[in-house]
Amino acid sequence: MNKRILALTTCLSLSFFSFSTDPQPVNQLSTQEKKEGWKLLFDGKTTKGWHLYNQGQKASVWKVQSGELQCQPNTPGSTLEHGDLVTDQEFKNFDLKFDWKISKEGNSGVFINVVEKKENPTAWTSGPEYQLLEPSHYDYKADPKKRAGCLYGFAAQKNEAVTKPVGQWNHSEIKQVNGKIEFYLNGVLTAQQNLNSSEWKQMIQQSNFRNYPNFSKATKGRIGLQDWMKGIAFRNIKVKEL
């Protein structure tokens, strides 16, 4: 009798453990995340809360499919608008988390502190970029400062981080507090910079971004997703204001 009870107890314990460790549903917040102040920036069904940079609400190459926010720029015969997708809301001090997967030889990015102005022709002329890159892209070997997780064009990965194979989801995080930023790729710290420092201003002057007078002038702005020549998809985009 005792052996039967022990066996039953063991089975119930294993069942509970299996149930309690089920992956969290996609594009949803847990009860704990809600208590901590996290908010979804993508509901998994619509592009509500987003618009094309400097173009507003227009039908574009960005669409929602299978719970993913996808950019499909190479649709044959398409008359849809191209452009970077930016949040309606602006953020200053925040913790941003998101999952992404990219096509073979894909190249994209996530911008922060984007300020929409006609004199800023694209989001990247305004805000710094968290680089997204598939390793078979030619930039991967040509320039370590352009690999995934980098502060694009400015520094190689602070600590080496590996992207998942094509078709698999990567997890990224961007933190900013009073202009001090940290980038993470699959749990690894890949970039760290103070956007208010003289060092950062000097780095800009030594780069091609010096040709864009409004680049990184703000430490508050919109979050942007880059439209590029290859497909990119996002999910689980969530933010907590700090």
Strands, helices and their partners?
Blueprint: H1 2-20, H2 31-36, E1 39-40, E2 50-52, E3 62-65, E4 68-71, E5 85-87, E6 94-102, E7 107-114, E8 129-133, H3 138-142, E9 170-177, E10 180-185, E11 188-194, H4 198-205, E12 222-225, E13 232-241
Antiparallel strand pairs: 1-13, 2-5, 3-4, 4-13, 5-12, 6-9, 6-13, 7-8, 7-12, 9-10, 10-11
Describe this structure as you would to a colleague.
- This protein has 242 residues and is α+β, with helices and mostly antiparallel strands.
- The chain is 16% helix and 30% strand.
- It contains four helices and 13 strands.
- Strands 1, 3, 4, 6, 9, 10, 11 and 13 form an eight-stranded antiparallel β-sheet that branches. The protein has a five-stranded antiparallel β-sheet with strand order 2-5-12-7-8, with no helix packed on it.
- Strand 9 (170-177) and strand 10 (180-185) form a beta hairpin.
- The longest helix has 19 residues, at 2-20.
- The chain starts with a helix and ends with a strand.
- 33% of the residues are buried.
